[in-house]
């Protein structure tokens, strides 16, 4: 990409405005500092060591990853060294990689069943090191997690009793609007575990939609938002931020204007993805609230409006996608800028790291 | 991936059974041969030079790509040399790459407006070569394409009049069930163009859902299906094939069984994607028709059933995804096999090539 201005970068591309991303990071860090909350951002949104380092420099206690391969990519020669993997790690290949990673960085992981706890203990056997394990709790998302505070206490006990593991606390990823349920579940679980004489050092929750309400569950000691660094149409629609706070845009070119109310752009689901997150349409065209992106195929996005569309072949549009995290996973690099100033392409280090 | 059997490949991964893929290729080639149809498979599904070569060896006249960068990846040292790009190419960067590619391989492209025709002519100016351009027609999909046979004839005339371009024929990507509309549109467009004294060499249509009905539009000379090489849940649901004909599966591990009717797997939207294609749920778990994949987040898939789910942490499941093409775009490699015999990982050469 030997080009000197944003307008000459070949479309479609994913543009990340570092000024906006850094402002988002600084603002949430200030909120967490004000409320005595530790911040451990999830890197699933940006997948860039560069932004993770900025988050840590601003005060984050470390980073969150979902998979071992993400943690590998984020800590390999990057200076990042404190990672929580909020995922049950299962299988022989993962045990080996877990052992290797735990030797290299300060690592903690989670478990929501005796089977996973036993896998983790087996992975650490003979290393002479203890792995910190948090219990994942289901506070309403109905995904992973022990279903009750009693089950959380039982699993905490099993972890604490293992000579290979250290009990690190409780973890949840609540559904949107689940802040109060987090408080109730965690209070009860903490009491039960402390009654066993086991300290509960960390209670960690997450989710960008409710990030400005994190202090309403005061039992939570640590927060793990991901999307806040970029924001997206989903968060704008929920009132969490404005379009001006969206650091990640998709830039596309109009390739066809088959009728006065329809235009086709060169970005489809291979850039914008099909994630709807409950919304209608596939993104917001900046400056054109009248336009809906009503259909995507892999390489085509269809823009429609009841007004005259007033776009010509060759015009560029900028789109705030429904879901920033998944868009950042589609291409090998994003194009960094500050406002209209092009910085250049940045490899998405943890893209496609699903193992 | 130093492993000797499929069961030891780390999950999640995308598995491609070459026996099934080759059978699908041979079967459709035989159908096309029987009906005197040229076959020009779209590589958007597999994105693998290896399978494209097999398609050509079996009788395909060349391949179809959607973007220049796909064509670059598919023809760079692969022996493949006949490509139709079914996409309006717009912008200075693309003009340069088009020039370079047209020098290297036998290339044809499409246009659906005077603006695109003029861009293509400008790209070829001074090369001394003529580029073959087909007119894209909208036969009901309401995406790109000229809206009427009259408009197709007008654009064909403009192409034929250019000293840099050769008119190559007509192209459409019809909606599912649009075979009859293709016949009607193309017949009229062909007559109008021939009345100008311009021959219409190729009339090319596509779409795996209607591939076994391609002969019902006898005016069509060439067919461009993509998905048929792998098939998927969408095509099974439409009655086009069976699950035994699905060459691409996602293999995942159960990481949590939080209640007797729910299990969580380590494949989410970063492998299966959110494409629904009008279906309910996010894939078919082979051997378990009672299970629905009712929710995906990026790294989690949620399996639910009204019966006891009878899965344990560590169990593997194989999933036929809704849409094979987009799944093949998510990871850097697929794992090739023949039945239960592992062949090994194969880089997805054209993955993420959206330019």
TrEMBL record, chains A, B:
- What SMART domains does the entry give? D-ser_dehydrat
Q: Record keywords: Glycoprotein included?
A: no
The record ties this protein, via InterPro entries, to: Ala_racemase_N (IPR001608), D-amino_acid_metab_enzyme (IPR051466), D-ser_dehydrat-like_dom (IPR026956), D-ser_dehydrat-like_sf (IPR042208), PLP-binding_barrel (IPR029066)
Q: What's an example GO BP annotation here? A: D-serine catabolic process
Top-level lineage group: Bacteria
SUPFAM superfamilies for the chain: PLP-binding barrel
| Gene Ontology molecular function terms on file | D-serine ammonia-lyase activity
Where is the D-serine dehydratase-like domain positioned along the sequence? 247-338
| Assigned keywords, A-Z | Lyase
Family of the protein in this entry: Belongs to the DSD1 family.
Q: What is the designated name of this protein?
A: Alanine racemase
Question: Where does this protein come from, organism-wise?
Answer: Labrys okinawensis
């Amino acid at each position: 990409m030997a080009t000197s201005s944003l307008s000459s970068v070949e479309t479609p591309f994913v543009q990340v405005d570092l000024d906006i991303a850094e402002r988002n990071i600084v603002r949430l860090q200030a909120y967490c500092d004000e409320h005595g909350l530790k911040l451990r951002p999830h890197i699933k949104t940006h997948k860039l060591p560069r932004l993770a380092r900025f988050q840590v420099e601003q005060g984050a206690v470390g980073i969150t990853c979902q998979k071992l391969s993400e943690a590998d990519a984020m800590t390999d020669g990057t200076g990042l060294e404190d990672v929580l993997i909020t995922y049950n790690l299962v299988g022989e290949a993962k045990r080996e990689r877990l052992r290797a990673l735990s030797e290299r960085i300060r690592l903690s992981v989670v478990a929501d069943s005796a089977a996973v706890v036993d896998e983790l203990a087996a992975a650490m056997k003979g290393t002479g090191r203890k792995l910190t394990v948090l219990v994942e709790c289901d506070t309403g998302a109905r995904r992973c997690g022990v279903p009750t505070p009693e089950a959380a206490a039982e699993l905490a006990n099993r972890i604490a009793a293992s000579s290979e593991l250290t009990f690190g606390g409780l973890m949840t990823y609540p559904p949107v609007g689940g802040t109060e349920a987090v408080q109730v579940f965690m209070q009860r679980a903490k009491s039960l575990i402390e009654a066993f004489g086991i300290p509960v050092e960390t209670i960690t929750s997450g989710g960008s939609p409710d990030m400005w309400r994190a202090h309403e569950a005061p039992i939570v000691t640590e927060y793990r938002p991901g999307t806040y660094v970029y924001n997206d149409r989903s968060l704008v629609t929920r009132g969490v931020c404005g379009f001006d706070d969206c650091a990640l845009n998709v830039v596309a070119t109009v390739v066809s204007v088959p009728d006065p109310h329809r235009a086709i752009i060169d970005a489809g689901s291979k850039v914008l993805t099909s994630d709807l997150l409950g919304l209608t349409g596939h993104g917001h065209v900046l400056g054109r609230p009248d336009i809906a992106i009503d259909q995507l195929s892999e390489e085509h996005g269809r823009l429609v409006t009841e007004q005259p569309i007033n776009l010509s072949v060759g015009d560029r549009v900028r789109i705030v996608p429904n879901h920033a995290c998944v868009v950042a996973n589609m291409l090998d690099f994003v194009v960094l800028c500050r406002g209209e100033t092009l910085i250049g392409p940045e490899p998405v280090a943890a893209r496609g790291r699903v193992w």
